[in-house]
Records
---
Amino acid sequence: MIPFYTKCWSVLAVLGLALSSSVCFAQSDFLVLSHRETVSFERMIEELSKADVVVVGEEHDHKLGHALELQILKGLHARNPSQLFSLEMFERDVQLTLDEYLNDQISQSSFLAASRPWPNYAADYAPLIEFCKANRVPVIAANAPRRYVSAASRKGQATLLELPKASQAYLAKLPITMDLPPEYDHALDAVFGNHGGQNTGMPALPPFIKEGQALWDATMADSILRGRRQFRKRPVMQINGSMHSDSGYGLVDRLRKADRRLRVMVVSIKRDKAYPQVEAGQYEKAGDFVILTGEEPKK
């Protein structure tokens, strides 16, 4: 067991970062681990700034985690203003709408009406988008449209080959390989097996659910690679659910296989019931850096 000692306030002062208006950090709100070692937030940012792609895995309902994502984005941008931002929370078919909003060509209300934002967008993701807008940071709408993920999950990805070419353009190149790392394959079996079917009290999941997951992973990886080509290999920070990137699986595995020269670093932001006395060893393989908080942010 290791105690928490990272000094949040001093780290943010060194970085010159403004705190999120919606979440107030305290000195002991989070802990940064790098392979069992406790490190400062500043050191993490310095290491991440050397990567071509930084993939940050989150818990979607983690308020402090979202605030920390904004500080990571600000830290990376401060070191390299050419930074790109990419996220799971917008789908590829709303890229034009997102660009129009970032370029101040449409109103915020028009943007929200057309872009299918997540229910928690205003509280959790809008601060990231507004930072990008204010600082002219290009944003990649990385995810596959949900309607196609649903189709792949119900009927298998073979059904996607029947789509018009214009529709397939919103997806990674088909067919998508299902050659998953064995550990990831087993992890998906465990997760999906606990969420539906007999004795769970929940509806059975679609029969090809892993093919839907693969479509998400492959399309997000493809979107990041396309963004780097479009913007002349500028570095990218991507955020997504941690299931898509923890332990270098999911979209991270696909990025590395697509370009073995690409330097990809993984950050995982998690809550720990035992915080601040955490068992560092259990997080050793989750990412290059793991940021831990308590179950709920302190008020």
Note: The domain at 49-266 is CATH 3.40.50 (Rossmann fold).
---
Amino acid sequence: MSSNQTSQSHRRFDPLFGDWVIFAPTRETRPNDYDRKNLSKLSPDACPFCIGQEFKTPPSLWVGKASDSTLSSEQRETSEQVLCHEKWRVRVFRNRYPAIAIEKNHAPEHNQLQIFSNAVISGGHEVIVDTRSHTDRMCETSITESRLLLRAIRDRIAWWHRQKDIKYVSVFKNCGASAGASLHHSHCQLIATNHFPKQTQTLFNRSRSFTNKTGYCLLCKQIDSELADRSRIIYQGKRLTAYCPYASRFPMQVRIAPRNHHAQFEESTSDTLDEVAMLIRRSVLALQQIHPFIAYNLIFSNLPPKRKKQERSFHWSIDLCPRPSSIAGFEIATGNMINCVLPEKAAELYESQFNLQRID
């Protein structure tokens, strides 16, 4: 590859593990609040995500507002800029330091039998600022902002699913330095790519194989089994279930999923989104009561675009993955996670906090 090509986002194939690694050299220059010794001294005037600082980010692609009890939103062209007087509550814009950038020249993939194989990776990387408040703690944000956040995620997933060549859309939130966050102000991220990740392909294959053998969706069957056992259930509502999975990969992990089979998050109704917002909020607030200031990731799992034929075997879900410590040598060497908190104990702790909560 030329020096110009290696300075751009691309992927390289690892023949030993049979997987691709994404390289994003421009990410190295992004700002990092967590390098500073005292986050409390950070001024909102220096934060590009705060009200009044919109000029420090690319133009907004999506803007969410609220007046009284009414929520409103609009998709935008990238040439437009959102201003502070618009009273936005949630906004979406392109990441200034993207892991994956828009790339129109699609070079062919190299033969994977070669030792040094590489390929162009294209798509997009967006930031979803989910509050006007300069905080990374959900207890300092509003339920209205949480509801708008879910609408932003739904709309941007739907937009990317309509784009040519996009094979996967990942939505996630990193909160805290050990969870991968670089900026203190609460936000989520969306990465859309022409690359279908190996781990996602494994999940997809296992789900499809289970459906072909049994006629059931694998996650539907897991939810039914958890509801029958009840020892790991922390919430059961009209539309959603929340539980600590039997084989949780992370301590205090929570999975949120529709009670009935739904493959595509972007087809969720407003009522479902409001319940999702409430449940994420309750789970994170409970976690912060049990472990104050703990880092965590929120991971959205959704049916990839152009996979309509497989929607019978796939079921969307959201995982709250607390990060009390960094992944260590054994996990890196083997791919096996070590969890020091039984999910039954975790569910008991969450349930006790749910009973004490006020979330308005």
Note: The chain is about 25% helix and 25% strand.
---
Amino acid sequence: MRERRTARIVTGRVCALMLALALALSSCGVLSGLFEEREDPRDRAASLMEHFEDRYFLSALDDKRLAAVCDIYEAAMAFEKSCTLERLSSEELSEVLTLMAAECPELFQLDYTGSFTGLTDRSGRFVSLDLVYLMDEDKYRERRRDCEEVLAGFVRDTAGLDAEGRERFVFDAVAASCRYDLSSANAGTAWGALVDHRAKCDGVSAAFKWAMEALDIPCVTLTADVVGGVVGHAWNAVELDGDWYRVDLTQSTRIDEFENAGLTDVIYFAFNISDDFVTEPYEVLDAFASVRPLPECERMDRSYYALHGLYIENDARRDAIASRELFALPTSGGTFTLQFSTPESARALPSALTPLVSAAYPHASWTCQTLPYNICVVTVNP
């Protein structure tokens, strides 16, 4: 009996000590922090970001990196000078920022270009991140409203069109209005492409992704280093009826060298093409593939030229298509554009055109300009 009574006394003392400790911790706010149930990162991300589930890479992140995305996103929207992180390695933090730059076009107030700084623990893991902004909060709110007005216009003007029609409308609108510009302070932002109409590849691809989200078309932005070079690049991929297609709208924006050559119409260099059609040696950043496999763009059937019967896969069809386009020109002359599957076929077009033009316009002068992506622009002046 004495042993059992002693056990009860000891147990009672332990419970009393635990209760006293709990009350002490609670009074200083420590206990609530220890036992507070953290919000699920996916629920938190969905509450912070529109179209979160449609963000191809962010929606596939593990909880740790997604929690960091939410911490940075929330702090940036409040224009805080820094945000707390839960012990991220420099590699993890670099991946998070790379994905946010690609998948959050609305977060254009943040400057991603510099080296990131913040507090680290003894193991070198980041426990906070310093945030650098391209503009103040008032300017951001104003510019975001400007962007959203443009996006609302896209939604309104494409009502009733299928996905491909909506995509083409945005492509045409941005290509016709935006000038390729490396010098503008906001060239890397969606606002630069949509409102200021001066942007470079990351700004153009951000604008296109934001517009596709507004139009309910699955879209990703990819960024890459040029193998052996010092300048990177950014482009998009869209999903249409279950297949992915590569879109590089930057190539079709207003570029001085093309306008100086008299090419003022929109040229569809890389509208819904396959990855294999791209010859530049781009190497997509590891941050993307570390999350999930990259979308595979394997088809050319939705490219602008394929849809309009202007894509020439073999020379056997070349003369028939070129003759058709020549005879379709008005008597005052005009221009038509063809795309070839190989650069060799594109370079061979001028020689093949000589007898065809002579047959259609015996006394005409004409030119054939060969452009990137195996594009040939034929202009006839009777």
Note: The radius of gyration is 28 Å.
---
Amino acid sequence: MDKHLKNLVLKEPVLSEEPTFFTVRLRLARNIKKYPFPHQMNEKQAEQLVKEVIDVSTCIADETPVIVSMTDIDHVTRNVLIERHIISPEMAEHGFGKILIWFPQMRLRIFVNEEDHLRIAVYGGKENFYNLWDRLNHVDDILSRHFDYAFDREFGYLTCCPTNVGPALRVSSLIYLPALKMTGKIKLVFGVISQIGCIIRGFYGEGSKSIADVYQIATGPALGKQEIELCQDFESVCRTIRKYELMSMGTIDRVAIKRKIVCFLDRIFENEKGISSSNSIKGLSLLLFGKNLGIINVDAMALKRLFYRILPASLQLESATEMDAVQRDSLRLNILRNELRNVYV
């Protein structure tokens, strides 16, 4: 990986300062009428589409995009892009003409030939959903002037997955919910938001598991809905989840959390063997929860950044060395010791 791309990757993801949120994202799915859907394209068609999209991308902004071809990167780079939510796991899978067109300053990414011809996404920390939609809609308008989208008057934008048909907009957020999980109320809350059409997924989306009490909440099928309506509904859902998380925090046994935090810190500073990513993330989640409860004085944003920094591929990218599990565990422990040396309970 070249130095410029490495520096950009290590700055990602853009995180929220709000206690219960990590990131927010709006994503459009679009297909181009003259091409078969990606799973039916041949290599020549995929490469032609890539060329056309790259040519058009110069019209989107003054910023020069970073172009990343999935076939030109090694497995460590591919995995770190997944770990930091820069690409989806599906994007990393084998296929013709899969490229990322990335505008870091605009916080805009275009995936070419993932599940659909184009997946256009804007992302941020604690940004207004409507501002994000305005930015995404502006880019979509530019692209639509160059491409004839696959569109049906009755069904809207046509997509590979039927659940995306309609406006083909997905609004999502990574939300941190330790109090709801600890009090056992998370199933009730998730049941309510599922009934109103939202989807609950793991840390890396569909088919993945939650990591450290962080879940992806997303809008579901949107046929018949307008984009602004989706943003309004999702913002309301996020407010409701946040309210219940804060209410649940009031019932938590702070003394018990304190003891667990002390145990984790002792493990970091008394252990000489290393620590796995799984145990590290559980501990960092505990520290972040302690911060939210007012038990410890620590930089919450620094903790959130550590969540990503200590993941396996991210460690190897930062160190510029491929390592086995034992080496990663040792490096991870050293990083945690350095970053948490001023944390006191």
Note: The longest helix spans residues 227-249.
